[in-house]
Model the fold of this input.
Amino acid sequence: MFQALGARLMHATDVTRERGTVDRRSRHSRRWLLLLAAFLSFPIGPAAARDQLTIGIVQFPVTLHPDIDAVAAKSYVLGFAVRPFTVFDADWKIACLLCTELPSFENGRAVKTTLPDGKTGVDLTYTIRPDAMWGDGVPVTTDDVKFTYAFGRNKESPVSNAELYREILGVDVKDDKTFTLHWDRLSYDFAAINDFVLLPAHLERAAFAEPAQYRLRTRYATDPTNPGLYNGPYRVAEFVSGSHIVLLPNPHWAGPAPYFKRITVRAIENTAALEANLLSGTIDMVAGEVGLPLDEALAFDKRHGGQFTILYKPGLTFEHVDANLDNPILADIRVRRALLLGLDRATLTQTLFAGKQAVANAFVEPLDAGYTDDVPKYPFDLARARQLLEEAGWHAQSDATRRNAEGKTLSLELTTTAGNRSRELVEQVLQSAWKKLGVDIRIHNEPARVLFGETLPHRRFDLAMYAWISAPENSPRSIFRSDEVPNAANGYAGQNISDYKNPEMDRVIDALEVELDPEKRKTLWAEAQRIYATDLPSLPLYFRSDAFILPKWLTGVRPTGNQYPTTLWSTDWGEAK
Amino acid sequence: MIRFTVIRLVEIAAMLVLMSFVIYGLIGLMPGDPIDLMLGADPHLTSADVARLKQLYGVGQPLTERYLAWAGAALSGDLGYSRLFSAPVVATLLPRLGNSLVLLGSSFVLAFAAALGLGIAAACRPRSRLDAAINFGCFAGVSLPTFWLALILILVFAQSLGWLPAGGTGGGEASGVADRLRHLVLPVATLTIASLGGYTRYVRAAMRDALGHDHIRTARAKGASEARIVWRHALRGALVPIATILALSFGSLVSGALVTEEMFAYPGVGKLIFDAVMGNDYNLALAALLLATAVTMLANLAADLAYAWLDPRVTYQ
Amino acid sequence: MKLPLALLGLIAAVSLAGPLIAHILGADPSAVDLLDRFGGPSWAHPLGTDELGRDLLLRLLEGGRVSLTIGVAAAIAAAAVGTAVGLAAGYLGGWTDRVLMRMTDAVIALPLLPLLIVLAALDLGKIGVPHVVADSPAISLIRIVVLAVLVGWTTAARLVRGATLVTRSRDFVRAAQSLGAGVPHILWRHILPNVTAPLVVATTLSVGDIILLESVLSFLGLGVQPPLASWGSMLSNAEELITSSPTLAIYPGAMIFITVIACNLLGDALLQRFDPREARV
Done:
């Protein structure tokens, strides 16, 4: 049920991430009245005890609605205040946050079904924690489940993950706390319903009367400090668009009490200003999930590392260069291998990222359960790269750029997201490195919105450098399966941008998704990675890392390395004694 | 006078209508199609969804019709919805307009006051060392790239010395007037320095001109003190040409404010325009551009009125 | 006048000779050396290296070539457009004059940078420019020149119009008219020569303004695109590195500053030579 979901999430998150990067200097302002109020208020001295925490992030969440727009900054803030049913935790296991236990075939909460068309589906039964309450004291009930399902199913609703609700054929309510979801398919990660985040029906139902206007009328937009919108350890108490969000403990939270009495999340999109604020103590820490780009964090570490705890956490973001296999030059596997061999990725990550970003040999992250090291590798080897190009018919010339027998030059266009400084730097490294092979690279960058919105789906590129953001054990269906190539017929859906077609890969992906036995699945994962590394539909570069800059006295922050933010476990946070 | 003001206001309105059409057309030519972006985010939209969205956003309709629909809504106070901020455009614009006016107003007042002093000092002692120094300083001022000046100020005062914040407006629960002002220092300084050179040159030229007039000679002959001559007689005459030139300079002041706001992450209209254009936020970019134009033209009108008030010989018909 | 002229000449000569200097030094301004990033000054790299280990001096020269080319080309083009408008307005008078001058006033008074940002972000493909042209590396240069002309023509237009109005009623123009000389001939032979001097001044001054404009647009990411570099785009990269390696920001900025101030001083000196009574306002 999650294959396409996870993949689309990758895409959506990537677009939003990139958007954040392009607009890196953007900030918003506070309301006029609040500005006046601030003018009249007095500065408050620093608190005596450390019961407050101020966090800097580089992007302000435009909405706090849990089910509209998948943006990293929003997930970060909501981690304090909203409980999803399930998430992946720091050990990459599915954790049950709002439910009492995960469904499984053993405990009888998961039941295989046969659908009218003969396919296999599954019925999953969850029970909401009995003590779960919204911040205004109203219990979280199956009424909220019904409302959220109706919201997600509605064609006019602005839900970000509409696919999820298409896969849920129906909801049966047993009582106030227990309900059953009927799924139209069965896959290995069936128990995870991470994106099914409840909305408070008692507050939101009125706003949803006109679904097309819901985006404007939802209380998350019109009244974001209403305590009834939140069911986590904290509630949003102050929301100043573009500036900051204040979180206070939720009095109706029944779980372990959070340590900090007040958490302020402040958006400072200018990273130089963010660092200055950190040094001056205006903010205590910088979130890794929505924080400094790695190279800036490394520079900060070099100068001020001693004053902070700096954690580097490799993540699920896979940087790579897609090759358009429709291009006759790139269709030749020897050329793709030569390009990868001609690239000294070890030195690149060592010098630009202080070795904090692992070189990728295939598309699965080393932390993932499906990861294998046993794949064909392409270490830096200029001689071998040149030899492959000669074999492919591209012969060295005196004027540097290789030509083939017809006199065509070995010239390719390389595209990435304009305005992403780190990528633009790496791009120039690639250009310089491939020039040594006799390959002429023309750089043509485009804004993220154009690249992801038009150029890649319409496959108007030779080489394109960007990232896939996935989830743990996320099926690669939409990026590698042969029927996921975007074209006019499918409305440019799918993310197999390379036009990669290998029946073997298709078979492995299909088998992988329905294989419920973890060991057998691991074998299939290894197979998929070997096929990828052999075929190289894209050139793997490295896995990105996030840098968490924390005060030395702060404890309990455990980066997950997946898309779920540390803030979901804010009740573990505390002060070192 | 009232008649003149009314005529000018009508002209400004006409200009804004014209500009709105031009900008509306231009913005449609920016890269990307919001519908395509939506499709990218949700590959399973049906063709009915697409038709509905196109209907909603009007992308499928001819330019003039779309414009008229937009203008009609705009006149009734509905400027649409910002894609980037997920909020109505008006609610996004107004607080930023306040911030921008604070920045523009204080920089203008400071720069103009300093320019008066420097320009008069230079004009009173033509060809002196002081004059030459001020003159060179002016050249330096107009030759500095605003963003570079901002960078250097951030480097020196925020990074090296750590005296002032590098960006933002401050605010938050623990901020007072002092904090707000501290955040304003560097942006205002940048914009002031950026416009000071030009203003000083205007003042100097106008004063030189005014000091050469007959009535100044008469006043001198009558034995009026030099200070009285400069500050009363000459300045009064010089202010008239200065006002005309200042009126024309508001456009570049707004341009300078855009760069300054961008550099200091100062949430004003200029920065909003940049973000909206970069983020393909049609409605927001359009409204913000028009607002910047309107503010410039109103400032322009104010300078014209000041001109009439300063020079009794001018009567507007 | 000598100093700014010499300074400009020097900057132009060295920038133009950049490829030659690179050849002599045996270095390539775009050659990346990851093992020598943020290098300090050395014999091999007199100004040190940038964030990718490229020679900063050679990069500066390359950027100078781009910035100066844009400045000069756009200033001349703007002067030509402005002259045409000014001649038309001044000579034809009447409605033409009123409309053209209204336009000029409007362009001068408008907040130009915000509008230029919109223009710089336009998708050329949407206005019918073929894909091959719209995606070529040179297009970012041409685009900036066009933008600079769009905002830069007004000074020349006002100057030329004023001079044309004055000259039009002079005796020798009347004489030429009565002898049956055609309009183009009169404009070309009798009126233009009278505006050459102020036009040269205005063009010199606008070179500086256009270099500033180019640097702002490139800095904002809307101007020259990599792998081409201009002083403005070099600064754009340096912004995030300002704390760790300030020199990367200081050098290109200083080059812009020196070049623009030299243009302004030269323009001012020319003005005083042509017309000692007037100081530039």
